[in-house]
């Protein structure tokens, strides 16, 4: 089946499939961990039991998404040692340390406090439970810090020397390699994208329940929808601004990628157009059926109507990225960003009119936009990673020289196995997540003033400690206001 296939291409497809599948979960859980910390903090501060209802609702979803993210990510570390062993050997002295720090300082932090966040409120008290919840949120951000640092170094390598004998990249300055030129922009852009992804999932779920339960609207659904719309209205414009800064940084350090994003096969000495649509034609080195706005690209990228912009005609053919993929993935990302901004502005108008919870058209649009953050994140990563080709370490190590000398049949067989297992296992997990989201949060009146306290299952007698509740649990009042401490 794979005897005439390209082993390097199959290895690239395999890694692209697994990393794309994996990152869908961190893109959701990074923002959801912070959202849970906010919900728990608002409840403890006495702003109402609705925040406790929402915390208990979303923490179950977080636990499942977090677990699937961890399991799907383990596979990639094995691929570094199998399909991409040459890359690991060459770059390992530089990227090995931050990847280890991600496991030691971030993942252990998340995993260590996750159990307390999920099950420990009645065992450790509200104060320590809040600390554990905040620590999980910090851990997810710390994971993003280290992983994005490694990825950014591959785009804009810094703080290294190359061994003349082995060809290995050796660390010369740890801080320069971590805080490489593209790292700050990529980190902020990625984290904000994760927050927007979570906001639109939360908002979509809230809108779904508002549409379903119009006769008896659920206050928890209203609150989650309102919070998500505030995030969309405030953060979407910030993301557009940060994305522009990231694009300018990319133009400085990876100009060929920007040329592909813009569809500029030809140089424009007197101002470059912004192409809205077109069909990239690599063979003829032109953009067919192009529709553009004259000189707008120069205004955006160089802040001047007549500023010159170089095109792919200045880049050798064997160093050009695949323009078709980069051109269209970039437009998918930007298009979804504009739709997110539209939702945010629409929600502000509805809030001003006092119809935020009654505007059915807005609710339907929010439901349709539920997966938009995930799609935009994938499109953004496709843009940045395919745009880096033909290099794994930009300008220094080609992708073709990074792969292990494996037979195409071996790589292809494992690729098929990954596709089958991923869709079966994670498809079932995703289906269960959707089932959880389809059930509305329990109305406040069912929980107001009460909390269910149950002891752990004991299979070896009763351990020393406080008196345990009778079978079936007992009810006690929830702490109110600041007396919860």
From TrEMBL:
Key words of the record: Cell membrane, Electron transport, Heme, Iron, Membrane, Metal-binding, Transmembrane, Transmembrane helix, Transport
Main location: membrane
GO biological process: aerobic electron transport chain
Keyword Lipoprotein attached: no
Superkingdom field: Bacteria
Single GO molecular function: heme binding
Membrane topology recorded in Swiss-Prot or TrEMBL: Multi-pass membrane protein
Signal peptide region: none
InterPro entries cross-referenced by the UniProt entry: Cyt-d_ubiquinol_oxidase_su_1
UniProt-annotated location(s): Cell inner membrane; Cell membrane
Pfam families referenced in this protein's UniProt entry, alphabetically: Cyt_bd_oxida_I
Region annotated Disordered, chain positions: 457-485
Keyword Membrane part of the UniProt annotation: yes
Membrane spanning residue stretches: 34-54, 61-80, 100-120, 127-148, 187-211, 223-242, 325-349, 361-382, 415-434
GO cellular component: cytochrome complex; plasma membrane
Family: Belongs to the cytochrome ubiquinol oxidase subunit 1 family.
Name of the protein this chain belongs to: Cytochrome ubiquinol oxidase subunit I
Record organism: Aquibium oceanicum
């Amino acid at each position: 089946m794979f005897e005439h296939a390209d082993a390097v291409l199959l290895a690239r497809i395999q890694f692209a499939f697994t990393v794309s599948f994996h990152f869908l979960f961190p893109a959701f859980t990074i923002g959801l961990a912070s959202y849970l910390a906010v919900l728990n903090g608002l409840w403890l501060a006495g702003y109402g039991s609705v925040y406790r209802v929402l915390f208990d609702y979303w923490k179950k979803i977080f636990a499942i998404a977090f677990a699937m993210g961890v399991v799907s990510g383990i596979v990639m570390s094995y691929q570094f040692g199998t399909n991409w062993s040459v890359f690991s050997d060459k770059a390992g002295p530089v990227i090995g340390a931050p990847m280890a720090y991600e496991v030691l300082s971030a993942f252990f932090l998340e995993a260590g406090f996750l159990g307390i966040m999920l099950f420990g409120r009645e065992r450790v008290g509200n104060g320590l439970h809040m600390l554990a919840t905040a620590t999980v949120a910090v851990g997810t951000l710390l994971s993003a810090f280290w992983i994005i640092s490694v990825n950014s170094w591959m785009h804009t390598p810094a703080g290294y020397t190359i061994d003349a004998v082995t060809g290995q990249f050796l660390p010369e300055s740890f801080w320069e390699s971590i805080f490489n030129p593209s790292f700050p922009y990529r980190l902020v852009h990625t984290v904000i994208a994760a927050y927007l992804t979570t906001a639109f999932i939360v908002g979509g779920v809230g809108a779904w329940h508002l549409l379903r339960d119009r006769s008896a609207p659920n206050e928890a659904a209203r609150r989650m929808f309102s919070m998500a719309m505030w995030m969309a209205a405030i953060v979407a414009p910030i993301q557009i601004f940060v994305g522009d800064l990231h694009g300018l940084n990319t133009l400085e350090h990876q100009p060929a990628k920007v040329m592909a994003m813009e569809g500029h096969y030809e140089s424009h000495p007197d101002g470059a157009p912004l192409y809205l649509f077109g069909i990239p034609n690599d063979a003829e080195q032109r953009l067919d059926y192009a529709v553009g706005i004259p000189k707008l690209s120069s205004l955006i990228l160089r802040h001047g109507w007549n500023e010159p912009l170089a095109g792919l005609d200045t880049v050798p053919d064997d160093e050009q990225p695949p323009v078709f993929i980069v051109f269209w993935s970039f437009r998918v990302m930007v298009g979804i960003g504009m739709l997110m901004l539209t939702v945010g502005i629409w929600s502000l108008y509805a809030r001003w009119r006092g119809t935020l919870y009654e505007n059915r058209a807005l609710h339907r649009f929010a439901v349709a936009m539920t997966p938009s953050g995930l799609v935009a994140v994938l499109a953004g990563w496709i843009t940045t990673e395919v745009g880096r080709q033909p290099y794994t370490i930009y300008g220094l190590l080609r992708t073709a020289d990074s792969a292990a000398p494996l037979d195409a049949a071996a790589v292809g067989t494992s690729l098929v196995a990954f596709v089958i297992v991923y869709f079966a296992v994670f498809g079932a997990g995703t289906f269960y997540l959707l089932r959880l989201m389809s059930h509305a949060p329990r109305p406040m009146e069912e929980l107001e003033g009460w909390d269910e306290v149950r002891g752990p299952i004991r299979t070896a007698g009763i351990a020393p400690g406080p008196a345990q509740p009778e079978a079936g649990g007992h009810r006690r009042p929830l702490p109110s206001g600041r007396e919860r401490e």
